[in-house]
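Standup notes, protein team

Yesterday: finished cleaning the Microbacterium oleivorans set.
Today: Phosphoesterase structure.
Blockers: none.

Input for Phosphoesterase:
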Amino acid sequence: MTTRLLLISDTHIPGRARRLPDAVLREADAADLIVHAGDWVAASVLDDLREHGDVLGVYGNNDGDDLRGLLPEIARREIDGVRVAVVHETGQKLRREERMDAAFPDTDLLVFGHSHIPWDTMTPRGMRLLNPGSPTDRRRQPDHTLMTVDVADGGIRSVKLHSL
């Protein structure tokens, strides 16, 4: 059996959008787990996503005390044998893979945000690093984005970047 993950980050609501885009909510309804890598800004976004499914999330640098009281800085969960960690920031892109191998030695999939830049790489140890970009604040990117990931039997079966 496959588990579908929806990956989003940096929603910045209400600063960048008044609400989550319909495409995010449709993907949330289709997912088994919603993963948010921080910078929600409004705690109501967490409430909204919880109406659509199970949420695994962390707070980001733009999140206030309300979200920091509800969410951890780093979240971890094993999903179908895949050890997942979520964090908002990983620092600069230079040597990111090596630094994350050292920081997350017992992780198969690290989901992060902060840059609003979609990212999909593999570390030297074999950990997958994914940043879904932002569904509401594309900054210098051509599109608003999110990712879906299918995991099963201890492995990542597929990763897809979706442009909204």
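Follow-up from PR in the comments: The helical segments are 22-30, 43-50, 65-70, 96-103.
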